[in-house]
Write a structure and sequence with these properties.
alpha+beta; 19 helices
Amino acid sequence: MMKYNIVLLTEERDKFIDSLREVGLVDVTASGWEPSEGDRALLLDIEGRAKALDALAALEPSADAKVEGNVYAAYLAAQSEIAAAKGEIARLQKLLDEWSAWGDFSVERLASLAEAGIVLRYFATPLSTFEKCRDEWSSLYNVALVDDSEGVARFVVIGNGTEDVSIDAQELKAPQMSVSDAREAVELSSARIASAESVLRACAARRNEIAAELSALKMRLENVRISATADRAADDLLTVLEGWSEESTCPQVDALLDSMSNVVYLKERPTPEDNTPVKLKNNRFARIFELVGNMYSVPKYGTIDLTPFFAPFYMLFFAICLCDAGYGAVILAAGIALLVKGGVKMRQAALFSTVCGVASVVFGFCANSFFGMTISDAPIFSGFKFLDFQNDFFNVSLGIGIIQILFGMAINIVVTTRTFGFKNALGSLGWFLLILSSCLAGVAGMVGVEWYAFSSPAYMATAGVALVLMLLLNKPSFNIFANFGVGLWDTYNNITGLLSDLLSYIRLFAIGLSGGVLALVFNSLAMGLTGLDAGIEQFGVGTVFQILGASVILLIGHGINLFMSTISSFVHPMRLTFVEFFKNAGFEMGTRTFEPLKNE
């Protein structure tokens, strides 16, 4: 990146920003912006149009209905009409639920009776209560039963409206609308919804107009942010802006700035104190996993991008946690479908699902599992050497953890050497040598290689060098006594931290095993509850129902297990990447990505 400090006349600022958009190569710093009341209204306008575009994208466009005036205004009016009509239908439906059993009646006739001094009061109570108290109530009031369905007695008390009616029943409000009128009103509201939905489909055919408004509002917001955060000078006559451009495009930016007579600029390389924007440049494979890395943070400018280094590990960890070739095939199919139907916006997610699905199919096959079934039971695979996941993978997961931790430490040593010099990496190198030599000595002891066992001179020499680097040379600017004190403190922190980091990798084994066990349980339930585990002696109608029942159990059970396993397979490798790997690799967080001004 190259940094530009630009000075221009305040009155020409908006014109200058528009010129930068035409080029589309310059990121203008606008940090520390606090929106005003007017800016919040602008943000709401942007959010509203973005939501409108998402809603209209799900509709089938239609040009049959015409939209007059502004499309977004028509969209809002149609949405408001639908909401009002649905609310009215809900109110009317509640009225119908309450009064349908009373029968259809004329509200006008009831009003005429009330004017004549005949008032009906409406009550409801359990039928058993009504039958028990009917004679008593009838002796006190004029009671008429209207309906006794569904175990509820609905009755009226006829009077002149002045008497006090005290009975053990719930009194209902007098109806304001007849049942037939309510049904007609529901039909009218449904017609309102259909009409508003046709307007929405017409809006969907012209959603590009809303997209254009959204782009204009976003550019207006950019202008507001830049104007609010730019430095002012000479009584606001001058504006000072900070911009950033990639080194490869600097000649084009220089040419643009040189062509403007009232613009002065200085170009320099960024310093560690600058908040330099970051643009990642990875190969096709690593670019897929930027989706994961960006959930945490972009790397600080000048440090190393760890995406290419954690991508293979993440793919492997995902496959281990899923641990089933059948489930992997489902993820793979979903990725391919998303790749075909999802469009450009979903391409990265589709590729991510595809590569993780491929890895899961391969590892699940090696782990001898296909939807919880043992692949080796098939005669075609009887001679294949499968991985005994349950008995062997606990130790393998620890080994994978050690490899990734050491890999991260090696990256940290290289980056520290490149940035600050080799002497500042000696402490990390000591820890790397100690852990690596201890692992090699442990393996040597197990396989009988005595010359590098724990008691061998070769191991003692390596460990001795590592201890000197860890305890006496970890801080080159400190004296030997300060180095020793800091080294002891780092030893305590590193031992506890490394142990915690290493144990986190056991979850790879635990998650993969739990998913496999659940798949096996659902298979056993499906076969056992339907009796298919005993075999099919004679095929008939009962067998068809057995197969249907087993299919439902398998579909629901494996669906739940696939959902839970996929979430675990996505989240836990992410945790291992962000916590264990990033920490040991010395990852430094960045605060902003390179986003040049451009016309959308």
